[in-house]
Write a structure and sequence with these properties.
There is one protein chain. The chain has 184 residues and is of the alpha+beta class. Helices cover 21% and strands 36% of the residues. The protein is built from four helices and ten strands; from the N terminus they run αβββββαβαβαβββ. It has a six-stranded mixed sheet. β5, α2 and β6 form a beta-alpha-beta unit. α2 runs parallel beside α3. The protein is globular and about 40 Å long.
Length: 184
């Protein structure tokens, strides 16, 4: 984020995109000193835009874009939802689901700040599949994580073939990051 003094006003998204030889899109926040969300892809990013959510604290947003890989175009969404206010988080999840409604080949990723026992999670999985459970249907604590404490999720359209899904614990965050591999 070039607007964050704490980050040295560095364009971190561009830094990683250039060094990883990837395409990128950054959904900037309209409020100086706050943060946005970014999408990095090995495939070209098309029709990218930022969808802003109602928020009483930090500006929350979702990146929406299309990515074509082979003969399939995916509707990709990246978000980071409110963590302090459960009601605000619920409203933001409703807004996202309104955006993805009726879309095919959806991949919705992010730090959702909600766990699998919440209304937000039930709303998401009523429309999309949890890629973690597609790979690990028993939902157990493989990889040494407590599956009931997950707040990062990758949701995909029903019928998506997930071949791998894992959490990557590490010192860079207060919770493990998540990866999922899909095939078509």
């Amino acid at each position: 984020d070039t607007n964050r003094i704490a980050g040295g006003n560095a364009d971190v998204v561009r830094y990683f995109a250039d060094r990883l030889d990837m395409h990128s899109y950054y959904g900037p926040s309209p409020v100086a000193g706050t943060f946005g969300v970014a999408l990095l892809s090995r495939y070209p990013i098309e029709n990218a835009r930022t969808v802003y959510h109602h928020s009483t604290r930090e500006q929350e947003a979702t990146v929406e874009a299309q990515i074509t890989a082979g003969d399939r175009t995916f509707n990709v969404y990246v978000t980071h939802l409110a963590s302090e206010d459960e009601g605000e988080n619920l409203a933001q999840m409703r807004e996202i689901l309104d955006v993805v409604e009726g879309r095919e080949n959806v991949i919705l990723v992010g730090d959702f700040n909600f766990r699998p026992d919440t209304e937000q999670y039930r709303m998401a999985t009523a429309v999309l599949d949890d890629s973690w459970l597609l790979r690990w249907p028993e939902g157990t604590g493989v990889q040494g994580i407590d599956p009931d404490r997950r707040i990062d999720h990758i949701f995909v359209s029903p019928g998506t073939r997930v071949t791998a899904s894992q959490y990557l614990p590490g010192p860079a965050s207060d919770h493990p990051a998540m990866t999922t591999t899909i095939e078509w």
